[in-house]
Design goal:
The complex is a heterodimer. By secondary structure, chain A is α/β, with parallel strands linked by helices. In chain A, 31% of the residues lie in helices and 18% in strands. Chain A has ten helices and 16 strands. In chain A, the strands form five sheets. An eight-stranded mixed sheet of chain A has the order 3-6-10-7-13-14-15-16, with helices on both faces. The N and C termini of chain A lie far apart (47 Å). The C terminus of chain A is likely disordered. Chain B has a single domain, classed as Rossmann fold, CATH 3.40.50. In chain B, 36% of the residues lie in helices and 20% in strands. In chain B, strands 3-2-1-4-5-7-6 form a seven-stranded mixed sheet, with helices on both faces. In chain B, strand 1, helix 3 and strand 2 form a beta-alpha-beta unit. The chains are: A alpha/beta, B alpha/beta.
């Protein structure tokens, strides 16, 4: 299996080490249009039990994909959540059947703006319909249907993955036994829309973007996308974390050069982040997915009252935030918790102290691991799934 | 205290046998009930209730390290405080709301009690009795704010800002419109005082007290700033006559 990936200014065929789900049923979208057919690229890890009660759906963030803990086929790096997911990890693939799918609008095998529009035989480009988080989840639900799983043991994700987890609970609450929205919000804040707009404008200002039709003409707005990534990357960290990591250290030089070279380590680091990102990501996908986040407002779908999304919910929730996350600060998580309390939902809420910023959810945070383990373990007991034989689960209190 | 020391302290606390007063509280809770433990600390009582009574338990805890510890152990706990976060819960969402050794640390004990009576059918409150003779003696003979083994902080450090005696709490129940279903006065070792101790001595010899409350008729309508003195005067009026209000 393989797919076309745009790198530099040319197409490159890369092996796609994952499964594909092709839907022949049209997918209605929030924008009023629909996708006549669509494809979802996904990975599964572990084994589904006979009752199909141990499935965990992991939802990825803006630039993530289905490669949760296996090696990424393009970058060769470990999966994006290999700290949390894997054999013996808090989301233990020895016990759970873990599913992760590339969102629609994405560029790692699922239908998105880089896919071929069957009507024209050309890449969709910006003719691709604008999608929402709700649309992503609706497509995922088709995948879960296809896997013949009636309800998920847990849906978890950070950032936009957390939005999807919340959307799952709002749209398909009876199919979600437990949910962990991490470092996320029930609605995209004005500041985050602003950051996303800077990123999009950067892409669209690149002459190589060609009005969104760069795939047809064989160019690539790599510089615009790289700048978008650099700006966004700053928001994933924190002042303290940047200072700890780089300070005002100079990059391979003793003195400042009185020029615009990357004098400082932090500049060099950001340039590297930008350049390496364009090798694995499609610029139009970046526009579409950031837009989907901007449009996310769970309360708006329910008359402005967030709690109404969760009335009568049986789902067990665990909301997690990080103290130095200024992209999705704790107050956003607290708003979710308050809405869940308003319907007397079963909810836990943990705020983890760290200076690593928004990215903390992807990094080595033992307190996050303890939280995920504890929450899944109690949900497992309530779900009636067997305890782990080696006694790890039995240590209890 | 570092997070690590916190954890070590929690772990040793968890390893101990359940406290007798917690067992007493657990004894009041029906099997399989929906329970909210406000000020749940390290989750000792919640854990006990889940194990012994198979309750659907939730906790609210002020300290973040306490919350994280509880959640890592599989308890459903959120960070919050009794003064601000109870208003989020719907009416009668729980069978029991428990305020264990927390009332004296709240800013507005009366409002907290009324919120608890609103969100749960039964409210269990335990608190240290400030009427205990040792405490009285410390003020009387030393002229200093009391410090005891279970109230060890100096007055300028203690989180306990609203101490009360058993008699005071009974009055608060009255003011807040709570009906006292059961009450226990506990000895220093946490056991209920025996029948040999006459009730009029409870306020002197009990180190702590546990009350089981339900909403009285009045609590449906919030009581507006009733002063205890005014209410006492009201209660002397003949039945059936509405108390006059200023």
């Amino acid at each position: 299996m393989s797919r076309l990936l745009v790198t530099g200014s040319e197409y490159r065929t890369i092996p796609l080490a994952c499964q594909l789900f092709q839907s022949r049923e049209p997918l209605p979208l929030d924008c009023g249009r629909s996708l006549e057919t669509f494809q979802i690229a996904y990975q599964t890890y572990g084994e589904l039990n006979a009752d199909k009660t141990n499935a965990i759906l992991v939802c990825h963030a803006l630039t993530g994909d289905q490669h949760v803990f296996d090696r990424h086929p393009v970058t060769g790096k470990p999966g994006w959540w290999e700290t949390l997911v894997g054999p013996g990890k808090p989301v233990d693939t020895n016990r759970y059947f873990v599913i992760c799918s590339n969102v629609i609008g994405g560029c790692m095998g699922s239908t998105g703006p880089a896919s071929i529009n069957r009507a024209t035989g050309k890449p969709w480009g910006i003719d691709f319909p604008v999608i929402t988080v709700d649309d992503m989840v609706r497509a995922q639900a088709r995948l879960i249907d296809h896997l013949e799983i009636s309800d998920l043991f847990c849906v978890l994700g950070g950032s936009m993955g957390g939005m999807q987890a919340l959307e799952w609970c709002a749209s398909y609450g009876d199919r979600v036994f437990s949910a962990m929205p991490i470092a996320t919000a029930a609605r995209q804040s004005s500041q985050n829309i602003a950051f996303n707009e800077v990123g999009r404008q950067s892409v669209m200002a690149d002459p190589e973007w060609r009005g969104g039709r760069y795939l047809e003409v064989g160019t690539n707005p790599a510089k615009g996308l790289a700048v978008a990534r650099m700006a966004a990357h700053i928001t994933y960290l924190s002042d303290d974390a940047l200072h700890r990591k780089f300070g005002r250290n100079l990059q391979n030089r003793q003195k400042i050069t009185f020029g615009f070279d990357a004098d400082f380590q932090v500049e060099s680091y950001l340039r590297h982040q930008g350049i390496s990102f364009v090798d694995r990501f499609d610029a139009n996908s970046y526009l579409y997915i950031t837009r989907a986040m901007d449009y996310f407002d769970l309360a708006a779908d329910c008359g402005g009252v967030l709690a109404n999304n969760f009335t009568g919910t049986k789902t067990r929730f665990c909301v997690v935030s990080f103290t130095s996350d200024w992209l999705y600060p704790t107050r956003e998580s607290r708003a979710i918790v308050q809405a869940l309390n308003a319907v007397a939902a079963n909810v836990s809420f943990v705020e983890i102290e760290t200076d690593k910023g928004h990215d903390a959810f992807l990094l080595h945070e033992p307190e996050l691991f303890d939280t995920v383990r504890g929450f899944l373990e109690s949900a497992r007991a309530k779900r009636g799934l067997p305890a782990l034989a080696d006694g790890i689960s039995g240590e209890g209190y | 205290m570092t997070a690590h020391e916190d954890r070590a302290a929690f772990a040793s606390a968890q390893a101990m046998q359940p406290r007798i007063d917690l067992l007493l509280i657990a004894g009041m809770v029906a099997d399989g009930a929906r329970v909210l433990d406000v000020g749940c600390g390290t989750g000792e009582l919640l854990k006990l209730l889940e194990e012994k009574k198979k309750v659907d338990g939730r906790g609210v805890e002020l300290s973040q390290s306490g919350v994280n510890f509880c959640v890592a152990k599989g308890l459903s706990v959120i960070q919050g405080d009794a003064d601000h976060d109870l208003i989020n819960y719907p009416d009668q969402a729980f069978d029991y709301a428990i305020l264990s050794q927390t009332l004296q640390a709240t800013t507005r004990p009366k409002e907290v009690l009324q919120e608890l009576l609103r969100i749960a059918r039964h409210v269990i409150v335990s608190f240290p009795n400030f009427g205990h003779w040792r405490i009285r003696a410390q003020i009387l003979f030393n002229g200093r704010m009391p410090m005891t083994w279970n109230l060890p902080e100096a007055w300028y450090e203690t989180p306990n800002i609203h101490f009360c005696t058993i008699a005071d709490f009974r009055e608060l129940c009255h003011v807040a419109g709570a009906k006292i279903e059961r009450s226990f006065a506990l000895s220093p070792n946490g056991r209920p005082l025996g029948s040999r101790v006459p009730p009029f001595l409870h306020n002197i010899v009990a180190q702590q007290a546990v009350f089981l409350l339900t909403a009285g008729k009045k609590s449906k309508n919030r009581i507006e700033n009733d002063f205890p003195m005014r209410l006492k005067a009201d209660t002397k009026k003949p039945r059936g006559v509405a108390p006059s209000r200023p």
